[in-house]
Amino acid sequence: MSLTNTPGWITLARLAEMVRSVHLRDLFAADDQRFTHFSLREEGFLLDYSKQRVTTDIMASLHALWQTADGTQWIARMRAGDAINHTEGRAVLHTALRHGGSEPIYYAGQDVMPDVHRVLGQMDRFCNAIHQGHWRGTTGERIRDIVNIGIGGSDLGPRMASRALAAQHMPDITVHYVSNLDAAHLANVLASLDPARTLFIIASKTFTTQETMQNAASARTWLTAALGEAAVARHFVAVSTNLPAVAAFGIDSVNAFEFWDWVGGRFSLWSAIGLPLALSIGMDNFRQFLAGGAAMDAHFFSAPAERNLPLTLALLELWNVNFLGAETRALLPYSQSLELLPSYLQQLEMESNGKQVDRDGKTVAYATAPILWGES
To answer: What is the β-pairing status of strands 110-111 and 106-107?
Structure first.
């Protein structure tokens, strides 16, 4: 049965007609404790949804619809490492990347946590070597500029977080991001850099992404023209799983940082794709960043629907888009440090949730995501 034919959906459609013309001031006038009844505090976050056009009956009906859709079961399957990425037949285990507990997390019968900790340890050693001056360029100069070359999740995630955490940036290290195939993007970044003090990170799981590899080839030409072919090994590292291609480029496989096919590109910020962020803010701060994500994961996995922040936001979005006809959502950060968050969430939400067909290949009879827009 389609979700739109369930009793819960029909009830919500009826409630929408009743509340559609009600002014928010009337909702507040009818309940002097509305803020208390329609707000949540968890993990240092305040979610105030008292100004959403919802009532107690509407929230109860949304929670009932969540149960009808077997949402709790899907959370459990995600956590268990089941291949819930139906299109690619893969698990969705980015939560393992920020898991700080001692319990194992399994994928295809194998505990993935030893590999996660191994790569984190590799990142830790590398960041310390850069920050303490132990890793130097081919001429003996300390590295002062890091250029991350990637696209999509390999660029926007770490770039957004680097901007957001600018107050934690390490002294004497500047991280730059290049993603556009337009040669002007890379040229503008390189114009003020010294090859002897520059390190490139090539972020591509397959090491074949066209835009990334074209920019990587241009960066290599720029570097070798100044320092020679032998300099590549001291001025390039890779975030990839294609070690033969990494070696063919001239990068020692020891300096290739791995991530896995159960890490979706839009969530890869939490993996070794976050290496430029770790170099920017330091590994201790990067581990705190991971711990913050893990705390929200624990809340999402364990909190009841009525107290669950991510679930509440998702249900409100479903309500606004499908029942109130609010097809767009503006995200307007007041913090200048979060200026790239709307762009990051556009990719994360609209590309992840904006689907036209269901798991059985049938056309979806409802909107799966709003159009998200906005900037600081």
So the answer is: antiparallel
